[in-house]
Design goal:
The chain is an alpha/beta fold. It has a single domain, classed as Alpha-Beta Barrel (TIM Barrel), CATH 3.20.20. The chain is built from eight helices and eight strands. Strands 7-6-5-4-3-2-1-8 form an eight-stranded parallel β-sheet. The structure holds pyridoxal-5'-phosphate (PLP). The site of pyridoxal-5'-phosphate has 14 residues, from strand 8 and helix 8.
Length: 236
């Protein structure tokens, strides 16, 4: 079965990239980017070793959730966040990776407090400084991490980035390196005692090996696992 073989290959490539960088492969989590996939495909991916699914769209997440497709795995939300849809995510997904405003931090906190849970989040960074992209400017990251650490309902775990679309291999390494530096800076600061900053989510099908070489702890891979998707907006 192609999916099973693809998963095995991506896992091997992650291990090889980690070893080449002198890193423990166990430090790196493969997040399967499951947008547009069916609940059945998600079940097959899980049966073939996927342990974390990354969802972009609340509607698809809700569908798969109702289908019971995520048995035994964690779900991360990696798509553009809409304030009115947060209620479907908080307390259900283990990590919201795409938090990019103070408003969102406060709204997630309020919802989490209402449910009596603490929601793990990442701050999405616009590392390429692109006007069209979501994510906060590097200079604003520390303030957002501090806010999330202070609020009782949110627990900041680190950073996520989607660098500019690259056309040549290796082109994104400088963005990954810049993200790693930011991650190190954020980690070196002190927050409250519960805060542990240990997630750096970056790298997709075309560049996850470079991201691992530059310190990623999570890679989000879709196409290399599931094949090409029909054309669509990534941020929908
Ligand atoms: C779709 C998606 C990915 C995976 O992209 P591929 O190039 O298919 O591996 C990673 N991160 C986010 C936020 C995505 O939307």
């Amino acid at each position: 079965m192609a999916l099973q073989e693809n998963i095995r290959q991506v896992q091997h490539r992650i291990e090889a990239a980690a070893r080449a960088a002198g890193r423990d492969p166990g430090e790196i989590t493969l997040v399967a980017a499951t947008k547009v996939q069916t609940s059945e495909t998600i079940r097959q991916a899980i049966a073939s070793g996927i342990q974390v699914c990354g969802e972009n769209r609340v509607q698809e997440f809700n569908q798969h959730w109702m289908d019971g497709a995520y048995q035994g795995v964690q779900v991360h939300f990696i798509g553009h966040l809409q304030k009115n849809k947060l209620k479907y995510l908080v307390g259900k997904v283990s990590l919201i990776e795409s938090v990019d405003s103070e408003d969102l931090v406060r709204l997630i906190d309020a919802r989490a407090q209402k449910l009596g849970v603490v929601q793990d989040i990442l701050i999405e960074v616009n590392i390429g400084g692109e006007a069209s992209k979501s994510g906060v400017a590097p200079a604003d990251v520390e303030g957002m991490i501090r806010l999330a650490a202070e609020l009782p309902g949110t627990n900041p775990r680190g950073l996520m980035a989607i660098p500019p679309v690259s056309h040549e291999s290796g082109e994104n390494r400088r963005f990954f390196a810049a993200m790693h530096q930011l991650f190190i800076d954020i980690k070196s600061k002190s927050y409250d005692n519960e805060t542990i900053i240990n997630c750096l989510s970056m790298g997709m099908s075309g560049d996850f090996e470079d991201a691992i070489a530059e310190g990623a702890t999570q890679v989000r891979v879709g196409t290399a696992l599931f094949g090409a998707r029909p054309p669509m907006r990534v941020n929908g």
